[in-house]
TrEMBL record, chain B:
Name of protein: NitT/TauT family transport system permease protein
Keyword Transmembrane: yes
Parts of the chain that traverse the membrane: 66-91, 128-147, 167-185, 192-213, 225-246
Entry similarity comment: Belongs to the binding-protein-dependent transport system permease family.
From TrEMBL, chain C:
A GO MF term: ATP binding
Protein name, entry field: NitT/TauT family transport system ATP-binding protein
Signal peptide, first to last residue: none
Matching SMART domains: AAA (SM00382)
Organism this protein belongs to: Planomonospora venezuelensis
Keyword Membrane: no
SUPFAM superfamilies hit by this protein: P-loop containing nucleoside triphosphate hydrolases
Domain of life: Bacteria
Limits of the ABC transporter domain: 2-235
Pfam families: ABC_tran
The entry's keywords: ATP-binding, Nucleotide-binding, Transport
Stored InterPro entries: AAA+_ATPase (IPR003593), ABC_transporter-like_ATP-bd (IPR003439), ABC_transporter-like_CS (IPR017871), ABC_transporter_ATP-bind (IPR050166), P-loop_NTPase (IPR027417)
Length: 262, 263, 260
């Protein structure tokens, strides 16, 4: 029943697709290929492989895991750096007073502007891409962690003082869990940013990856390929966000429960 | 006690922090810990940045980027706010459109640049188009979110005095949504700058900060100019963000007072 | 075991300074249950926070078991008024109770055993696996008490522990406190603004004056035990004591002996 209702809410999607198909067929503009053409091209590019490889083509197996691997490497690294630095800044007012302008400045630098710099520093390859991703996405994690760590309920802290928790016990059992909702908000934002930076870093300096395929299609005026790659990236973004939401709901079940009752 | 009060001065501490980073970077270069050829000296970069501030060509690039940025942001607001109001006041339209929007939203905006390069022959139009696509999400979502937050009692009060739906929209919904829209625009401004520079980096074109960074890549002291230009890009980001924050505080202090009070 | 002498505390400085404590002297013997009452805003919480080492008083001394309190003493536990902010919502009830025991070097099974035992004593035997926010307010405060019990402190401080629960639950928790106290050899300092409660629960009632707080009265409660919500409260001695404490709280009696 819930499934049917969910399907019912999607009624506009097929309508839009059919309208798009009809409009593009009528217009016959090479820049706007019909969705069926795009789908056929996508099938050809990624899903026409042998059955024992889940129909994935060589190009799909070569490019998609590479891109996703870089994305996760950058995201995890940024997560560790962002949470550690953020909690430090959140717990030490003095430190944050010294570092805050630097953080504000670093956050304001448009990350793509650093691409040529990282390109010169690391040359083409995974290192440069991961560096770009990390630099671009660490800020929301850092700012959210520091905000979360700064605003731990005073009574939670006093409780841990009264019951004599050590510094590390306090950190791991009180401060980090209490900051976790904020940290997750930062991680989610940075996951979608990581996808954007993955794409741009592959567009600028890469010899493989989904972004490289996009550039390749664009250079050879393969418009269905360009549209198809954009669709694949959209699906990837959608999947990443959905998986993250499921994980967040599990980890932060206490947060939702506690907020519902109080 | 004077030491204590000096440490309480945020401005001074921040300046010390920046100076500290500068000294560490400079020392690392001077002592050979980091090869100055790989990573230029901090003093050189700052010198180049000062040089750029007086460089007419670079300033023309900045103006070009800011032009596309401002045009894109303006167009974003003109499109996203009315659409946000439409979706926010007509829940049936909103629920029908929601899945379509949810499929479009995860598409990484920069992936549209290669397509936009093919679709638009004019570089400026191309930049504005990708800026609008990327920047319209925070404005749209904040507008819808803000509308949901409008106090129903205020609307009913006005309605009970015989005001029509348009008057209610104009006198209650718009003012109470305005702070949310402003927050959306502030976020959109940062995204617009990222997209403007990305489009310039990928599309080449005649002018822009991204183009400047790309073109200085071929000279021998490329890295110095690249980093110096990046510093200016960061400075523009800081300035824009502070201006928007300041404007928000000025215009909507009543809203801040209310939300702080309920916390 | 607890000795407070000439305790003063001033918040802030200059003309806007707030004098919360104006020289408090108090001695609590081992095993006593002392209730502290006073008008709201009189500095009761400041006193408790000074004893718990959460606040450094501007003057005077607090000694616990012969040692001056400078940081939070090891054998002290606090039951806060606001249970929802004192229990950790991200941990189960059992983990909340067991958390402080980590520091006593207990291993996992022993921590769990101690937590289960403490939860049994407060009548929450089956709740260890639940989260605090799944329980009612009164049950959450029981968890808070169980956490303090499992910690086996020499001194238990209770800061308006029953201030945010309904009347029925409040009576249950008062009786629970009395039961727990007779079971363990614990010294309890209970802060409340409820005059009836202070007389019903306490061995002694200490009345604080308005801020800057001083001890305005110190009465021994001699009521026959075991105490009972109905019979104790209709006992003439109870009624008399309650009136006396009430007069002290309102500052209607001027006793030269207690002015500091």
């Amino acid at each position: 029943m819930r499934f049917l209702r969910a399907l019912g809410r999607l009624w506009l999607v097929p309508v839009v697709l059919v309208a798009w198909e009809a409009a593009t067929r009528l217009a016959e503009d090479i820049f706007f290929p019909p969705p069926t053409t795009i789908a056929a091209r996508m099938h050809e590019m990624w899903f026409s492989g042998p059955a024992e490889r889940l129909w994935l083509t060589d190009a799909a197996l070569e490019n998609i895991p590479t891109s996703v691997g870089r994305l996760f490497a950058g995201w995890l690294l940024a997560g560790v750096i962002g949470v550690v630095l953020g909690v430090m800044l959140g717990r030490s007012a003095l430190l944050s007073r010294f570092i805050d302008p630097l953080v504000q400045f670093g956050r304001a630098i448009p990350p793509p502007a650093l691409l040529p710099f990282f390109l010169a520093l690391f040359s083409v390859g995974a290192q440069m891409q991961i560096a770009t991703i990390v630099f671009g996405i660490v800020w929301p994690i850092l700012l959210n962690s520091s905000d979360g760590a700064r605003h731990v309920d005073r009574q939670h802290l006093e409780t841990s003082t009264v019951f004599g928790l050590s510094r590390s016990q306090r950190l791991f059992w009180v401060i980090l869990p209490s900051a976790m909702p904020k940290i997750f908000a930062g991680l989610r934002l940075s996951l979608s940013l990581a996808l954007i930076l993955m794409v741009i870093s592959e567009l600028v300096g890469s010899v493989n990856g989904i972004g490289f395929q996009l550039l390749d299609a664009q250079r050879s005026y393969d418009l269905p390929g360009v549209w198809g790659t954009i669709v694949v990236l959209g699906v990837l973004g959608y999947l990443l966000n959905s998986v993250f939401l499921v994980a967040e709901r599990r980890v932060l079940s206490w947060h939702r429960g506690a907020n519902r009752t109080t | 006690m004077t030491g204590r009060s000096l440490l309480d001065n945020r401005l001074l501490c921040g300046a010390i922090g920046i100076a500290g980073l500068f000294c560490v970077a400079e020392l690392a270069g001077r002592t050979g810990l980091i090869d100055p050829i790989v990573f230029p000296l901090a003093s050189t970069v700052v010198g180049r940045a000062v040089e750029l501030a007086a460089d007419g060509d670079f300033l023309a690039d900045v103006v070009s980027t800011l032009g596309a940025w401002a045009a894109g942001l303006l167009l974003t607001v003109l499109i996203a706010v009315p659409v946000g109001f439409l979706l926010g006041t007509l829940p049936r339209v909103e629920s029908a459109l929601r899945p379509v929007l949810e499929f479009l939203r995860p598409i990484p905006s920069v992936a549209l640049i290669p397509l936009a390069l093919l679709l638009f022959s004019d570089r400026f139009d191309m930049k504005v188009a990708v800026i609008v696509y990327a920047a319209w999400w925070p404005v749209l979502i904040n507008t819808m979110y803000g509308l949901r937050d409008v106090d129903p009692l205020a609307k009913e009060t006005l309605r009970s005095f015989g005001f029509g739906p348009l008057a209610v929209l104009w006198r209650v919904s718009l003012p109470s949504t305005a702070p949310f829209i402003a927050t959306g625009v502030r976020l959109a401004a940062a995204i617009a700058l990222i997209l403007a520079i990305s489009a310039e980096l990928l599309g080449g074109g005649s002018s822009g900060i991204g183009t400047f960074i790309l073109e200085s890549g071929s000279s021998t002291d490329a890295l110095e100019y690249t980093v110096a230009a990046t510093i200016w890009a960061g400075a523009i980001g800081v300035i824009s963000n502070s201006l928007f924050t300041l404007a928000e505080r000025r215009l909507f202090h009543w809203h801040l007072a209310r939300t702080e009070g309920t916390r | 075991m607890l000795e407070i002498s000439n305790l003063t505390h001033v918040y802030g400085g200059g003309p806007g300074a707030h004098h919360a404590l104006g020289g408090i002297d108090l001695k609590v013997a081992q095993g006593e249950l002392v209730c502290i009452v006073g008008p709201s805003g009189c500095g009761k919480s400041t006193l408790l926070r000074s004893i718990a080492g959460l606040l450094r008083p501007t003057g005077g001394t607090v000694t616990l078991g012969g040692k001056p309190v400078e940081r939070t003493p090891d054998d002290l536990a606090v039951v806060f008024q606001d249970y929802s902010r004192s229990l950790f919502p991200w941990m189960s009830v059992g983990d909340n109770v067991a958390l402080p025991l980590r520091r006593k070097g207990m291993d996992r099974p022993r921590r769990r055993e101690a937590a289960t035992e403490a939860l049994e004593q407060v009548g929450l035997a089956g709740a260890a696996g639940k989260y605090p926010w799944q329980l009612s307010g009164g049950m959450q405060q029981r968890v808070s008490i169980a956490r303090a019990l499992a910690y086996r402190p020499a001194l238990m401080l209770m800061d308006e522990p029953f201030g945010s629960v309904d009347a029925q639950t409040r009576e249950d928790l008062e009786d629970l406190t009395l039961r727990v106290r007779s079971h363990h050899d614990m010294t309890i300092l209970l802060i409340t603004h409820d005059i009836d409660e202070s007389v019903y629960v306490g061995d002694r009632v200490v009345v604080l004056s308005k801020a800057p707080a001083t001890v305005a009265g110190d009465l021994r409660v001699d009521l026959p035990g075991p105490r009972d919500q109905i019979t104790t409260r209709e006992n003439p001695a109870f009624v008399h004591l309650r009136a006396e404490v009430g007069r002290l709280v309102r500052g209607m009696r001027n006793d030269p002996a207690v002015s500091s």
